[in-house]
């Protein structure tokens, strides 16, 4: 915004503010930055910075004394410092932009190099011994136990369908961004399944890393009523299920004709791996591919490295 329009106040990315020097930070994010980030696979949020409440819910000039509520706190303080430096002409917007790109490319290359080094120790499909279902479940359980792993359950379900696609004659639609709300993406849930020769969603999975409550069922019912093709809406959770909520989900079929189910993530994938026992390693390979291909805003570099380390350890035992 600042480069083509030097008179813009870089500290006012809100059109709600009065004045001729404001601009829409969210518009620039969505129109230009998302494409740039995705095209060059830069290690940052692939949607928009303005999805974070720290920026989205503020409509005043971002001066040094503004308190941005975000974590880690120092990052937000640094953002205000950098915006102030440009405003006071201590540095130009062009130099700062170029340096941001330089740093992102450097981090991207370093991350790729680390993963390549770690993966060099993995056995190939030809020479590795097959892991048992219990080995794979143990690996997934440890991976899910890591911090900031909420995206992993989505990838587990997607990997299951992708690895068994030709047997199920169903396919997974492209996964939506981890940070984007369903209302924004117009998605029914986290993982959407269609028939192999159709694009209408017949099965929808919603992942929860917290207890499922009655309101979650109400929201699911709203989505169900808007869909003409949905057969089942399935919650995948890592938490115990309340019997009242479970009963509410069961009763919904009578009024909607759509099954609403609540399943445990590990229990689901364990049954899947025994059901499709001969392709269990295909599942693991697909899960690894999805994990490594996810943007770092959804699956951190640390989580990617942990998975490779866990898999390497499992295959060496």
Q: Overview of this structure, please?
A:
The protein is of the alpha/beta class and 317 residues long. Helix content is 51%, strand content 9%. The chain has 13 helices and 5 strands. The protein has helices spanning 25-39, 53-56, 73-87, 93-119, 133-144, 152-163, 165-168, 182-185, 214-226, 243-256, 265-275, 280-293, 301-316; strands at residues 170-172, 191-195, 201-208, 232-237, 259-264. It has a 5-stranded mixed sheet, with helices on both faces. Helix 5 packs antiparallel against helix 11, helix 6 packs across helix 12 (280-293) and helix 9 runs parallel beside helix 10 (243-256). The radius of gyration is 23 Å and the shape is globular. Mean pLDDT is 87; it is low at 178-185.
Keywords:
317 residues, alpha/beta, 5-stranded mixed beta sheet, globular, 13 helices, 51% helix
By DSSP (H or I, 4+ residues per run), the number of helices equals 13
Approximately how much helix is present in the residues?
Answer: 40-55%
Question: What's the SSE pattern?
Answer: HHHHHHHEHEEHEHEHHH
Round the Cα radius of gyration to an integer and report it: 23 Å
Inertia-based shape:
globular
- The portion of residues forming beta strands comes to 5-15%
Question: Spatial order of the strands in the main sheet?
Answer: 1-2-3-4-5
- Given helix and strand content, the structural type is alpha/beta
Quick rundown:
The chain is of the alpha/beta class. It is built from 13 helices and five strands.
């Amino acid at each position: 915004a600042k480069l083509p329009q030097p008179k813009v106040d870089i500290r006012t990315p809100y059109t709600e503010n009065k004045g001729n020097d404001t601009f829409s930070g969210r518009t620039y994010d969505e129109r230009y930055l998302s494409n740039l980030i995705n095209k060059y696979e830069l290690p940052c949020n692939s949607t928009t910075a303005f999805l974070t409440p720290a920026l989205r819910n503020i409509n005043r000039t971002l001066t040094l004394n503004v308190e941005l509520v975000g974590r880690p706190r120092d990052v937000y303080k640094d953002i205000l410092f950098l915006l102030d430096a440009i405003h006071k002409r201590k540095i130009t917007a062009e130099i700062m932009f170029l340096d941001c790109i330089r740093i992102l490319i450097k981090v991207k290359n370093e991350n790729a190099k680390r993963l390549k080094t770690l993966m060099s120790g993995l056995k190939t499909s030809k020479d590795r011994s097959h892991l048992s279902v219990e080995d794979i479940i143990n690996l997934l359980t440890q991976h899910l136990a890591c911090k900031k792993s909420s995206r992993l359950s989505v990838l587990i379900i997607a990997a299951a369908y992708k690895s068994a696609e030709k047997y199920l004659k169903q396919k997974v639609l492209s996964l939506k961004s981890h940070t984007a709300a369903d209302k924004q993406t117009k998605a029914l849930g986290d993982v959407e399944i269609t028939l192999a020769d159709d694009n209408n969603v017949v099965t929808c999975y919603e992942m929860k890393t917290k207890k499922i409550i009655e309101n979650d069922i109400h929201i699911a019912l709203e989505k169900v009523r808007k869909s003409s093709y949905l057969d089942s809406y399935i919650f995948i959770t890592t938490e115990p299920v309340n019997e009242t909520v479970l009963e509410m989900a069961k009763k919904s079929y009578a009024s909607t004709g759509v099954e609403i189910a609540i399943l445990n993530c590990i229990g689901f994938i364990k049954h899947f791996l025994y059901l499709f026992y001969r392709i269990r390693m295909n599942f693991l390979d697909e899960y690894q591919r999805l994990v490594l291909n996810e943007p770092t805003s959804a699956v951190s570099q640390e989580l990617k490295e942990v998975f490779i380390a866990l898999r390497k350890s499992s295959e060496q035992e």
